[in-house]
Amino acid sequence: MHRVVILQLLLLFLFSAGAAAQETSCENLPEVVVLSGEPAQIAEVCRASELAIAFLAKYGLTPKRSIRFEFVETKIDSHGYIAYGSYDSRSDQIQLMTYAAILANAESPTMYSEPFDRGHYSGAIAHEVAHAVVQHNLQSRRLSNAAQEYLAHSVQLAVLPEARRQKIIRVIAIEPWQSGDVISEVYMALEPGRFAVKSYLHLTTMANPQAFVQILLHNQWFYINVP
Prior knowledge:
The chain is of the alpha+beta class. It contains nine helices and eleven strands. β1 and β2 form a beta hairpin. It starts with a helix and ends with a strand.
């Protein structure tokens, strides 16, 4: 008898949880759809997505179809390391760990050598949106990770409050990519903070950034030579 009651309660809980989670389009950005029953969660995704898409639009990159978010409570395995979010180009779907799950699954998580907080959570959302928008604008069948991460990390820094971003840039204290440099995913893996700052500074200080963005969109190699 007790087992039947417990099973009924479990089924009721699962049904309620499924009913509560519904697809909601962002008010100012209908192409972004969030699967959630929590208004604060939806607002956080929409706000970060708006900032990311507005920044990318300055470089001629805009979403071409819907981008769908869903939240998970478990770790996301991305090629052997734990990621806070993951974009699937086949479905235009982003899996995003909840903020509580990130804190629960990592001891003192950090981002760009800072404690991970809500500000960096917005950056993580923007990072995945950037991957989606870049895929929507591809000029080749396959884009290198170096090119994708250059843009995604630039966006991630761009959506942070100005004072926060400038503090990170000041603390990391590194120059933008220079002519003759090689932008590689190996460097990104070894020095993600430096990679992010170098990419953001390079993108935002170029005289003709759209031309370089086109180089990125055509890049299929493991690295990019900076002209």
